[in-house]
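G., before I forget:
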Amino acid sequence: MVKLVLRWLLASVVFLALGVVPVTAADTQRFSTAPKAKAQGKWRIGYYEGGQYPDYEVILKAVVRGLIELKWMNPLEMSADNNPAPGGFWNYLANNAVSNYLEFVPDGYYNAGNFDPKLRPEVRERLIKRLAEQGDIDLMIAMGTWAGQDLANDRHHVATVVASTSDPIGSGIVKSAEDSGLNHLHAKVEPDRYARQIELFHDIIRFHRLGVVFEDTPEGRTYAAVDAIERTAAARGFEVVRCTAPFSGVAQEEAESRLTVCYEQIAATADAVYLTVHRGLNAQSLPRVVAALVAAQRPSFSMLGESEVKRGVLMSVAQGNYSYVGHFHAETLARIFNGAQPRALSQVWLAPAKIALNLKTTELIGYNPPVDILLACDEIYPTIEP
Amino acid sequence: MIAVHRLSRPVAGALRLFFAFFAVLLLTLALNGGLTLGALYKVQLESVSAVVRVVGHDWALRIQGAIRFGKPIEQFYGLETTLAEIQHDLPVVATVAVTDAAGRVLSARGERLRDGALAQAIERSRTAPAGSTYKIDGGYCLVFPIKGRDGQTTGALVMVVKETAIAQALENHFERNLMVLVLVALAASAALLVGMIMFNPLRGDAPPSGWRLFALPIAVMVLAQGGYAWDSIETFHRQYLDTVKETTEISLGRLARDLNRLFDKGVKIDRLVGIEEPFRRVMDNVTEIGFMEIRAGHDEVLYRVHRGGRLERGVAPSPLLPAFDLTADLQQSVDGERLRLGSLRLRLEASTIAASARQRLLDSGTVTLVSTLFVVELLMLLAVLVRQQPALATRTGEAPRVIADGRHLLGRPSAFLLLFAWALPLSFIPLRMREIYSPVAGLPLHVVLALPLSVEMLCALMTALLAGALTDRRGWHVPVLAGIGVTIAGELLSMRAESVWSFTLARAVVGAGYGLAWMGIQGFVFVWATPQTVARGVAHLVAGIFAGHICGSAVGAMLAQQIGYVPVFGISAGLSVLPGLFVLVFMRHYFGNPASDLAAGPPSRRLDLASMAQLLRDPDFVWLQLGSVVPFSVAQVGLLYFTLPLFLTDEGFSQATVGRILMIYGLTVIYLGPFLGRFVDAAHSKKTFIVLGGLIGSGGMIYLYVDQSLFAITLAVFALGAASSLAGAAQSAFALNLDAVAKTGIGKAMGVQRAADKLGQMLGPLLVGALFASVGAASGLAITGALYLAATLLFLAVAHSPGNEGAV
């Protein structure tokens, strides 16, 4: 009798230990990334983006490459250029991706227009209803801050991986870097990423007035890391020269033109400019912005990275290419499909940053970078690409 | 085969002598060869380390710069490429890795290491001096800390060089040097044999004089040492120049490659702002560089940066000096072609190279000196054995017998053998402690590192007191043999000790044994030397102690470098048997006390306060301690072991230079002491020599107030050595003639004197340190000298010479 009781006690302890002890973020490494078939059928993946921001498709392609490297799907040829049609690339994926384990659901693509605030609520409700009631999607990729905000709630319980957000904590998507706050939610967090960029820019240029353009909405402020800028400004004693330009609820052309006007304005009033992520700043508008900054001989720093430096922004320290972050998200997907709870996986990501400098820009604005900075650069662009 | 027993006595004797000298020659050349080959290895390791340091330091700074620019070390873009470039720059590096602050490997290339090996090396690097090299898994590890943006260590760049790489690089030098050693040994042996045959010192009936006996072997050995040393100096010099060439070529080549990369990306050669920084980094790592410059295609000097950071632009170009200049082309890739833009040049400073070459000459000279000391001590041992005739000891109650001459010299070889064995591990006891260190009792690290040595010395002091009473009660041989046994046990315990406390305890045991043994040997000299020879006996004893200490430390350091610390404790234990054997075989007839002691009546043999009080009531004995023994020890330790290392290293002198200056003291005592000892013995008044010693020693220190040059310091050290030679032997001779000493017992009295000596040694650093802190180095030393002078004058005024000081 005693032996029986003891055995029962032991079994209970083991059971409790296995079942009750919460799975911690340290368990990230416990879950394999190896392909694992679903019990029945394939893992069905959906996608939601707030608009057609160019980086979204770049990152999605990086995630797909990551999944290919992890052997979850067969190699797939993908165009280097973005598909101009909204959801065009997703359709391509749905129709051409070959995998024994997962599929990209053809009607699993959602967008809120092109950051259309009027469309957004309707799309959100439709998507959540599907996720909550139909149960035909196993995992959602939420690309961007809008998508992350819309799916970060307990109205559904489908695993959601949020990518390409400037500040998922500041924008209220996740509770903290260590805890997403919701069992089905995971978002990539890069702590202090933008604060480091601004500190570095200040270390090199020693400006007193830093110009920033952003949309004065909660999302706009997070895209532009305004909180980080203001914190750093307070700590370092420089002034922030602000100019607001909308990107949501306006046509693309209007977003671009109002942004350009803002940059022209702050080029005259600030002594250095930080180019932040904004829907109005793209391949079309960037040359005009660069021209304004060069004419005013203002040093500039790109939040986004070397793609803007190539085209005339003075410098940047940002992720070299999206392959690393794509791999990070692919591993997250793989672990979730292997049974991990999204909340249990580590969200913290430190981008392997590349230092880029445009030499032509230095000449035009009369700035001579010290040899040590030149030696530290991973990329030096001798010309300004159109 | 020659049947020795059929040869005539002189020939047989000469052959035996030849074999004895041959053995000494071989031992000495083996020692010299061992020290030199060890030094060659060390120099090669330092050379390789220097090259690795140049590259590693530069790369660590670059990684640090990139981290400062926002690249996180955990996700450092391009780290793999960086590590590949490092291995390309340094083929001798077997493993290169970047770790985080805790020692976890973030990225690595090359041979795999044992788990945790790098973390261990990084942990040790936190407390060791910058630039240290650590042994790790059959290789040597260099750690370059990488600081984050907040100045805290965020990681480390670690490079491992295999031992086999060092040995391989050294192969040619080794083989050549070994060959020279063998040739020198053969030539010296042949010269010795021929000399012995032609100038047989044993020819004739009269016993040979010292000079006749030893002139030839000394000449042969000095020439052999000199010849070998000359070749070694050449080797060291070549090694040094090769190192300078290699480090400068690598530094120049890498910088040129980096600049070319910038030029390929469109950077202009005349727009290199802040070029002083990369130049300064190169010059910080290669001290022989005088300046670096960049010239344009038509030889116009665009930038010249001098050591110290001064930048000149557009200065007149200086002509190329092929022996001192290194040049690398600066190029740009244009449409697939390499276009020459200019050149990068550095100029080596002739004076710096000459100074380094002199340093190596001195290093080689030091090796030769140590082996010469060894030769002299071995020949002394031989001389003692040749001269020695068995004297007959007495036991209490037996009739007195004739006392033989020359026995006062026996203390020297026995002390030399004892100190040689004991001093083997001395140079690395704190280093061994660091290896097994773990925090204990909340003590700071440096206190724990100092613990074993301090405890060892303290135990030596305590047992020295005990040895005095034992000498009086049971005879000098008891503490000597017991002490040797305890020392052997302590060294064996040191081998096995793997924790702070067990190692400290082991050293305490060694200290206890050492204190017993050397006080016992001193007791032999005091008891068995005649009043006419006691001063010489003490001088020879001290000479043997110093010679053993110097040779033992040097050999121990060399052995430790080759085989590690732990086995050296075992060798020390093994070699500690030798003094015991020497005592048992050659001094057994002197066990106990001489018959003449019996006439005076037995002194109190108990270690009791009454006899101590009696001794301490004797004003002459007390003034001897207060006026000479203690002040001299304060001055000695205060100057030699406290001031010198601190002051000279602050002035920029190397540790090797400090060591060499300290050796002047030892050499003075070893060679001047016995020479002056005969005058002390011959003099009526030992007090004169005590006062003379005090005047000379204090004078040297007071002079430092007006002149703190290296020459003045050397002079002060020599003066102190002369003071020790004059006063040291005279102090013992003076005390031994005091009635109070005879009543108390020689052993106990000398034990008290030794304790006073140790008291002065303990007070020395404290007093001098306090003076330094309050009035500065020069004034502090002068005040110490003035106090020494005042004590000497007080001794002169107050103390009385004993009635019979045993002069001839």
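Residues 605-808 of chain B form a domain with the Growth Hormone; Chain: A; fold (CATH 1.20.1250.20). The interface with chain A takes residues 62, 65-66, 68-72, 74-78, 149, 258, 262, 265-267, 271-275, 277-278 of chain B (CB under 8 Å).

More on Monday.
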